[in-house]
Every structure is written in C-alpha cells, then in structure tokens.
Amino acid sequence: MKWIFQTLILLTLSLSVSAQSSKFYTTSSGELIFSIPDLNIGEEEDGQVVRFSGFFNAQVVANFDSNPYLGFFGGLSIRNIGFIFDVPDDLREATDIQQDNDIRKKVRTYNLGVPIGIKIGKLDGFFIYGGYEIELPIHYKEKTFVNEDKKDKFNVWFSDRVDTFTHSFFVGLNFPHGTNIKFKYYVSDFFSNDYNKLMSRTNLSYKDLDVNVFYFSLSFNLFKDDKIYYIEEFSASGR
After folding, report:
1. pLDDT, mean of residues 119-142
2. Which of 21, 29, 74, 239 is the most exposed place for a label (fewest CB within 10 A)?
3. How far apart are CA 75 and CA 184, in angstroms?
4. What's the whole-model pTM score?
5. Mean pLDDT computed over 136-155
6. Is 227 left (phi over 0), alpha (psi -120 to 50) or beta?
7. Could you give the CA distance from residue 36 to residue 19 in angstroms, rounded to a whole number?
C-alpha cells in the first residue's frame, strides 16, 4: 500500500509542476489473457493448466503525460479471470474413484477493476509501465468435466466463494505503434478462506484450495492516442 501512496504523491507533484506542458487523454482496448494458477491443494502442488480468455475483457484508461518520457494513468476495466485444474485422485468422490474417472474443474469470475500506474520511456514509442489494481468479482462460474465431458455448470452473482475484493500488481511493455504485453499477479487468494463447502464431485472444500492467478496478456492500442501518434508524425514529416 505504501507504493500506492508514493505514486499518488508523485502524480500530484507532477500535476502542479508541469500542468502547461502535460497531455491528458483517454484510450481503450481489449485484452487477450493467458492465465496460469499458482495452485496448492492441501499439501500438493497440482493442476497447472494454461487458460485462454478472449471474452469479455475491456479497459478504459485516463492518461496524464507530464512530459514525453513520464506519465501516469488510471482507469476502469472488466475482466474474465479464472483457472483450470485437475482434481487429485485421492480427492475425487468415492464413485469417481471406483470408476477411475478424471475430474477437471474450470472456474472464473468477471471482475470490475480500477488500475493505477506509471509509464516510463518514450511515450509515443517504446516504454515500460507498472502499477496496482483492485478488483471486485461480480459473477462466478464453475464447470465440471468428467473424462473430458462437461457434466455440470452453475453461475452465481457476488458469490461467497470469493472475497469481496482482490488485489494485484502488474508490469508491461508497450511497443511502437501500440502492441502491448502485460504480466500480472494476483496477491489475493482466488477463493475465500471462510467458505467451507465442498466442490461438486470432490472431497475438496473451497478454502482448502490455495490459488493465486498469474497471467500474461496481449492488447493493442491500450495507450495509443491518435492525436499523439499521428498528428505529431505528420507534422514532423512536413505534411
């Protein structure tokens, strides 16, 4: 949390010193997410399966560039965050154990997020950025697969299975012309430590799943503003 306050103080000072030369603009983009769980089930580490999420991920960013090499941003996002794991053999229900069924779970939440961060580098070209995001999980979905066949699923708004808020940190690389790669780690557990019920077809309670989600993502034009990228390029070329 100390990092957040330091960033806000730096942003305030930058606003007062460079107000006349600064640029404020908004940008938006989708996000293609590849997530991997940092997963412990009881005393075991298991189930690290890559999950792809292309829908529905959207973000709107308010940018404040105090000079061509330093900027700050905040915004709003909606994001599809989840993971996939295989239930360990000894934690399947007795019937599934007897039939030697493989059980796979796919879970996800839709989160509303508020990121804040800093950009350093050539802001109309290549730069690095990083920051913090707080998110509110609003919708939970869980699917169960038996021997690769989907057997059941359910959806819950504002489920008690997850905490009210999640916290994460991220770093990213923005390339010229708008291609963007981001790496993000959720320091909050995916499931609530107070939810004692068992997951369907398992002898595993939600609180026994120690999961932190990590993802890397690809987006385009997340920080790219037409006025900055095109008008200035045309002016430099004499058009």
Report:
1. 96
2. 239
3. 16
4. 0.83
5. 95
6. alpha
7. 42
Of 147, 166, 3, the closest CA to residue 79 belongs to 166
DSSP, collapsed to helix, strand or coil, labels residue 103 as: strand
- Angle in degrees, CA 52, 132, 159, rounded to 5: 60
The token pair at 123 is: 């802001």
The token pair at 107 is 């879970």
How many domains does the structure of the chain reveal? 1
Please give the single-letter amino acid code of residue 128. I
Residue positions counted in the chain: 239
pLDDT tier for residue 235 given thresholds of 50, 70 and 90: very low
Residue 196: how many other CB atoms lie within 10 Å: 10
Domain extent for 168:
2-236
> Which two structure tokens, joined as six digits, stand for 203?
């002898």
